[in-house]
Amino acid sequence: MLYKDRIREKEFLKLARERGVCLSIFMPTTPLTHDTQGERIVLKNLAKQALEQAQTIADKRQIWPMEQYLEGLQEDEGFWEFQAHGLAVLVTPESIRTYRLAHAVEEAAEVSDRFYLKPLVPSLQPKAAYVLALSQKSVALYEFTASQQLDLVDVPDLPKDFSDATKRTLQRDRAPAGRLQGDEGAKVLQTQFLRAVEKAVHPVVSGSNMPLILATTASLQAIYRSVNHYDLLAEQSVDSSVEKMPEEELKQAVIPLVAELRQMRIQRWVDLYGQRKAESRASTDLATIAKAATYGQVSDLLVDADAVRYGTVSDQGKITITEQRSAESYDLIDEIMDRVMENGGEVLAVRKDDNAPADLMPIAAVLRWA
0.85 cut: is pTM over it? Predict the structure, then answer.
């Protein structure tokens, strides 16, 4: 099982609003506990870099508690026992927050008057999905993670199987009053079974931004889709009986489906950009996008999650670019992204393996008006 921390958009925006002395540290990690000593050394070195930068904007009374937070984290045996593929450490003189990430991140130590948050965006929109494996004899909900693992999800009140939901041993059992017989009765009972499954699954997946992939026979798929209330139920599915399917086989069947869903989302964005560009409602110019984001004009933003452009953005949206990183500057793309989300816009962060169009990198925007 991968030990990761989920971050929701509401929490992300709260972090984006924080102002003061803000240290943002990102580093790759491994779920294998035997390598934690090396990871602690990496954190120690990144913390040293960050604290040295902080000296230009903070006094000793502010730096000392941040130093104590970071030293305490390095020495926390319980914390390092369970890691994922990436780690985010966000520190102020008043607090320290950590996020174990399902995706790998590059090493970074950023200091400014606000947090550097762009590496967290893939956690808001992971290359992941829920997988609902259904058969008459078993029901299981999995999370297919960004690290391509299947994690079993605990679902309260989830029926164990057909009999648990219907109180019938077989679909074609004769009812006490002679009802629910034959094919018609079987379909009624199947619907009852799958409605109970959907009722249990929906509260668990609701509120996430992950698609739900069905893994079951065509007949059970059709019925489940008829009772489903989750907006992100994918058209793609594992069209097979999963009654005796090993988890590894199920995982291999899901991998190309998740990749396809990701590419479809990116292509929809590119198509929208093309439509709006013809209407003078699209831009790849950093200065134009910064101003538009400040005034709530950006509806959809595409960003390179690994690209950094240092500088500042004024309250009026005017950018000042700096050649080098400093505690007085920050990542312009990160700040623009935060402003878009604050104004209700959608952000799609991509990485090299997403194969997004190079001419839209490192940032592109669709505007609400020309």
Answer: no
CB 309 within 8 A of CB 289: no
User: 136 near 153, Cβ under 8 Å?
Assistant: no
Determine which helix (DSSP H) or strand (DSSP E) holds 268, and give its type and residue range. helix 247-277
Q: Render pLDDT for 148-166 as a digit per residue (tens, 0 to 9).
A: 889 899 999 999 999 988 8
Measured distance CA(210)–CA(218) in Å, rounded: 22
Q: Bridge-partner residues for 311, per DSSP?
A: 321, 330
SS3 364: strand
Max alpha carbon distance in the chain (Å)?
Answer: 83
Average confidence (pLDDT) over 286-307: 95
Residue from 51, 114, 108, 120 nearest 329 by CA: 114
pLDDT at 167 over 90: no
Using CA atoms, how far residue 179 sits from 188, 220, 310, in Å, is 11, 22, 71
Report the alpha-carbon distance of residue 36 to residue 250 in Å, rounded. Answer: 31
Entry field: residues in the chain? 370
User: Per the structure block, which two tokens stand in for 300?
Assistant: 């959809």
Nearest to 331 by CA among 311, 317, 353: 311
147 secondary structure, DSSP code: T
Among the listed residues 85, 97, 76, 227, the one whose alpha carbon sits nearest the alpha carbon of residue 145: 85
For the stretch 103-131, pLDDT in tens is: 889 999 999 999 999 999 888 777 789 99
